[in-house]
């Protein structure tokens, strides 16, 4: 399968979980992939190793997306390595659940800096290099639709991602650059395991509110992203695709 042959993709936050699955899926479809990481070089190297072992092309590039110089550096590294960028997946994200009375300035800024500012900074840097036919894919969340308790700040960041997707689709549309978001439901990842969501009452609640009767796996999201990155999605822009098995 090579629908992304000769394309170059940058995936932020790709050292594990959904980001790693996206990087591997894009590579399997023919794209050369920049695997960005913030802290886990070992995780990013593992993803790169798996891609290369499968016959693909990938490099690991460190950088904190919420830092303007780092964000530009990620894009510069992609251009230096591959000479172009065709696909940008803004996957980097953090979450920290807290009820209203527990929200602090640190809790707020930590999530908005990565989930919102980081997305804007990387897209700003990438937009200088994107050409007609390029695709920007933002990873949102169904939380912006289902608004669960104790998620005010995280849900606000993902609501911002929804809004930014619409705005950038209009800004970049005249250049024939598409911008869409994929909004996963609960997905089984290293993060949801370490946060204690897997096997918890929250997982039980999530499954009970999902018509397809299970939580997601990283490849469920990666396949939707690969579709949006390809010319099969050439007539889609400004869309928010809920990828949560029907939960909303």
Automatic annotation (TrEMBL):
<dbReference type="InterPro" id="IPR002347">
    <property type="entry name" value="SDR_fam"/>
</dbReference>
<dbReference type="Pfam" id="PF13561">
    <property type="entry name" value="adh_short_C2"/>
</dbReference>
<keyword id="KW-0560">Oxidoreductase</keyword>
<dbReference type="InterPro" id="IPR057326">
    <property type="entry name" value="KR_dom"/>
</dbReference>
<comment type="similarity">
    <text>Belongs to the short-chain dehydrogenases/reductases (SDR) family.</text>
</comment>
<dbReference type="InterPro" id="IPR036291">
    <property type="entry name" value="NAD(P)-bd_dom_sf"/>
</dbReference>
<dbReference type="InterPro" id="IPR020904">
    <property type="entry name" value="Sc_DH/Rdtase_CS"/>
</dbReference>
<protein>
    <submittedName>
        <fullName>3-oxoacyl-[acyl-carrier protein] reductase</fullName>
        <ecNumber>1.1.1.100</ecNumber>
    </submittedName>
</protein>
<dbReference type="GO" id="GO:0004316">
    <property type="term" value="F:3-oxoacyl-[acyl-carrier-protein] reductase (NADPH) activity"/>
</dbReference>
<feature type="domain" description="Ketoreductase">
    <location>
        <begin position="7"/>
        <end position="190"/>
    </location>
</feature>
